[in-house]
Amino acid sequence: MLATRSSIASVADLVGRAACDGGGEVLGRVEDLVLDIDADRVAYVLLSFGGFIRGDRLFAVPVRLLSLDPGDSAVTVHVDRTMLKNAPVLAANDRETLADRRWGMGVYAYYGYTPYWE
């Protein structure tokens, strides 16, 4: 018998889910997942946090900052709200920046991680 993995989810299942802090407070929502096809990885999860930042902006966060409870309709973002307020942002229509490794290195460094491509 195969074991089931609760950390497996389809993109369609994740997009639109609420993004909550560790206490269950809704911060925003999952807008998209950015794939690195060459590396067979999810490069970033794009989140919107309209509650405390206005405008048409997205936040790219490393997928390791999220956890998923398959019985819940939300994902948990394991980062302090203050850190999110100051996080690198991306204009919603600026998809070219997502492919810029220098920008990506800054995102990963901001959250204290080494990029998976290094």
CATH architecture: Roll
Task: Describe the sheet with the most strands.
Answer: 7 strands, mixed
Structural classification: alpha+beta
| Poorly predicted ranges | none
> What separation lies between the terminal Cα atoms?
37 Å
Tell me, what's the shape?
A: globular
- Residue fraction in strands: 25-35%
CATH topology, what is it called?
A: SH3 type barrels
Supply the number of structural domains: 1
- Write down how many β-strands occur, each being a DSSP E stretch of 2 or more residues: 7
Which strand order do you get reading across the main beta sheet? 5-6-1-2-3-4-7
**Could you state the CATH homologous superfamily?**
PRC-barrel domain
Residues in helix, %: 10-25%
Chain-wise SSE layout:
Blueprint (H helix, E strand, L loop, with lengths): L10 H4 L3 E3 L5 E11 L4 E8 L8 E5 L4 E3 L5 E4 L3 H5 L4 E2 L9 H10 L8
Structure description:
The chain has 118 residues and is an alpha+beta fold. The protein has one domain (16-110): SH3 type barrels (Roll), CATH 2.30.30.240. The chain has helices spanning 11-14, 81-85, 101-110; strands at 18-20, 26-36, 41-48, 57-61, 66-68, 74-77, 90-91. It is globular, with a radius of gyration of 14 Å. The termini are far apart. The model has no long low-confidence stretch (mean pLDDT 85).
